[in-house]
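Same chain as my last thread, 148 residues:
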Amino acid sequence: MAATEKYCSLDDIKKRIPERELIDLTDDNDTGSVDTAVVDAIIISASNEINSYCQERYAEHIPFDEAAVPPLIKDLCVELSVYKLKLRRDRVDEAWEAIYDHAIKTLEKISKGTVSLGLPKTSTIKTNAITFTNKTVDDRIFKDPQGY
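reply #2:
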């Protein structure tokens, strides 16, 4: 599976807002169509923001595999992307402000581990760590007759 830098697609965003609104939010050159380059840049920005929250807990999975993006991550990416698109045109209303705040709070919970993505957590145990002790050979209970 290939890792992806985008956790949602244009089609996912079209399921959340009408295409006409999407055209209004992205069409900087008055072509009458969705500017996919603008949408892609916004999706990448939202995906990177998601990575920043998930990196500590799920580092081994970041970036997520294209075919295995957790559904919650995909939903959050759509919400963050739409918010960022609306922000470009200064069209963020109270409802989208609340959606954005909820998405960020969810990402914070993912980062803290109170919301799970259903993936194994990144191991924090260092396998090549050095361990020190204050014990000496004389402290051994079973002594080797040869002094080892």
